[in-house]
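User: Hi! Is it possible to get a structure for several chains at once, not just one? Here's what I have:
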Amino acid sequence: MRDFMDFVQNAFCEQSHWNPNNFYGTLTATAKALLDFDTPKGLRLSASSLSSRNFATSYSLSNAGIVDGSLSFLYSSLPLQAESRSSAINLQDVIEGYRHLQDLRKPDEPWWWEVWHGGKRVDRKAALLYGRLYLPRSTLEALYLRRISPTRQLRISYVSDSSLPQGGNVLALLQTDAGRYSTEYLYSTDSALFGVRGLYNFGAFPSSDSSSKPATLPYEVRSPHGRFSAGAELYYGALNASGGLSTGIRFSTLPAHTGFPYTMTLTLNPLMGNLSSTYAVKAGGDVALCSRFDFNVYSYESELQIGCEIWRLKRAPPAKILQGLRTGKDANEPDVRPGEDVTGVLKARVDQNWNVGVLWEGRIKELLFSIGAGFDLRKREQIFRAVGLEIQYSS
Amino acid sequence: MAFNFNWSPLIADTSRARDMLTTALNKSPKPPIIVDDIIVNELNLGSVPPELEILEIGDLAEDRFRGIFRMSYSGDAFLTLKTRVQANPLNTYLSTRPSFASPQPLAASSSLTIPLQITLSDIRLSGFVVLVFSRQKGITLVFRNDPLESLKVSSTFDSIPFVRDYLQKEIEGQLRVLFMEDLPAIIHRLSLRLFVPEYQGSDETLSMENSTARVDPLSSSASDPVDPFQNSPFNSDSSSTETYASFSQKNLLRLATLTESQRTLSLFTPSMKETVFRAWAGSSERAENNGFGTPQLVGSTFSRAHSYTASTASAQTLSQSYDGVSIPSRPSLTSLSTMHSGLGSNYSRSRGHPGRKRKHRVVNLRRSGTSSADVSDTASVSTEASSNAASTSAPSWPLSDPAAVIVEKAEREGELQTPPQSPRKGVKFRSSEAENASEERGRDIQRQTPSTPKKNAAGTRDVDATPVATARGTSAPPLDERNFVSSARNALTSSSPSKSRPRLSEKQRPSWLTSRPPMSSTEFIQSSSGGILEQAWMMKMATEIARKVQEEKEQNGRNMWTRREAEACEGPPPAYTSS
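Assistant: Yes, the chains can be modeled jointly so their relative placement is included. Here is the combined structure:
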């Protein structure tokens, strides 16, 4: 389950017209959401509040170690309009599942953001300040997010921990999203790591010029049903002479696609000889399945993971279901009405070594909960590896 | 002082050392580049032991030792490790960083694990070692400084110079840490497992056999007396290192069998090696002189035998004659002594040889008509004895007891200007000893006596003659045994000075003894061999015992011993000349 502060950050990005899915780093987000979900360990409670439209607080307490807690505060210069009450919050925003790609949207024009008042520009770039303090561990996390322009965002994150060399680490990330392509430049002070990421989307793109293409083409340009994207990343650490490189491609269906939506990705690390391929499909309105196969060309190590996600609704009117089956369209977003009891998501994954992970997330009354467990079916005597419960309340 | 290293790599079982080294290497948190456990593949100690030079010894005791050494090693030991390492440096780097401020690459940090085999060889060590050994606490070995001088690391990545240098640097660092911190703990635990029994209980494979071995040494299967340091210190599987018993288990088993045979009347008498029978101890000198005996055996155990026998004698005599005297009694020794004497008799008895004349078991040593019988018996027995002695490795005089020894000592003391009363004490002692011996041995004595008359050499002394005469004078059937014993003792002791102290024998030759033919076995009595120390010690013990006896005797006036002595002193007391 996404943390409340992440939910608020997402709300900020949405509200400032920032699409986080159009970057190389999120190429395999669907597979990660369906296969790499975190099962909570121990007991964790968190109480959060969007006290005003600009300010959010969150406190959490967990029993990792003896006691582990954190305080976090967030300030957004952009008034946020998200529904933050845990009783009414949209579970789709909190629980990550199958990620549906939307059609590419042309980025905003820069002059859209200008706000004039009395002959002067009074608009300010949207910024977000966030800080989190882990109390027993004495670790501080800080984030500064600034929307420099409609296509550019600067993100500076900082961690201060005594266990780190140099006491802390600053990561600066400059993201540029031009719709058809996107680039990221990053620099980390720890080991002077430089990184470059880029993604390019193939296919038709709504051109900036609305009247560029005449409608007299011999064939009808339909809205694309799928999108093919390709990207690469490159890292170089100056201090410890380490580096990394990887490329990836993805094909995903768009909402215009009839039939079950699916996403296929393939990533390759040529230096390490790692090949990773995933295939995710949303079968029906409530079920999403995903599988991943990793293979290493040098060491011949392979790995297979299978996961599924099932949305449980307390009640589902039969008419709605039939309609969903007929059109196959509204199955994308199961209609979760506020006030429903014990609706949730059941996630499960299993890998080739019979490591099973189960997670159940949902809402009870006004609380959001998630219960998870990890099994190792090979060890009969020590099956339970990690069991946890997490409860969130936000207002 | 030299150190003898039992450094044989072929015999040394290093499996336990390998396991302990594996555990030690994996106990401390590994650097993130090492993905799998570090397993010790092979540990070869090489053929060259380290050189130790003693710098200082701080504490030295039977169960404690502390010393500072300078150790240098330049041998060909090698160690092979096996593990898996991470080949993606980005993966190693990012795995140790919090995810909040990490770049979170998509696939650039995917892992690639490579199996790695490392061989450490050409180890050069030189340093100062503090070695503390304690029987209770085991061995502690601490390096004062960093001992590692140089090391050669060869691995599967030798073709890549960057990785090779990196591995060399990293492993040298880790090994220094290992020598300074982990090796003392490993050696301490190993030593505790070897020496301290309680720690062996924690080892499930050794606990059962060790406990049974310790509880009942007689019931265990016959195992050779083990030198506890014979095994390699890394081989703690040997359960026999715990039995530091001063008695060999085999012999204890045989003794148990013999005691059983008294009840079961079994005729089997096991032969006991590496022992000294009480019967031998008195004539051990003669045995040595003759060379028939086991000089090495007798000589090596000379002091032990004499201490053993002397103490036995004192314990027996004093305990029996004086009730009020509390003696640090060692009943086990006395019982063993009787067992030994009994064994000796059995031993002589069981030594059957085909070409031997049948010896008479009953000998009448009465004065009147026994001289011829004695002669004949003497002859027969002497032949038997000589053949015995010639064929066996042990002297065939089972009837040697501390009294004879003491008398011998007394005789020598006479040479060395001991107080004149010693002969009397010796006399009294012998007769008392005769009584004790006879009571305990029963009929065995009669069997033993045939061998003794052969020792009636030409030379005797009045000292010896007097009690014999007394015994003969009061020859009652119940005293026959005592007579036999005393006469035997006389014979034994009389034969000793025949060669070395001819003047004495000539002076003090009683008539009845001269009738006996000189033995051919008088060569036994040369007392020139043997350690000077043992002789001096013997004499000292003899004087002490004699003095004690005299004191006790003077305390109790009325006593059968004094009566006997009065009888013995009917004639003129023998002059114990010292010159």
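Chain B has a mean pLDDT of 63. Strands of chain B lie at 39-44, 51-60, 64-73, 78-86, 113-134, 138-143, 148-155.

User: Great, thank you!
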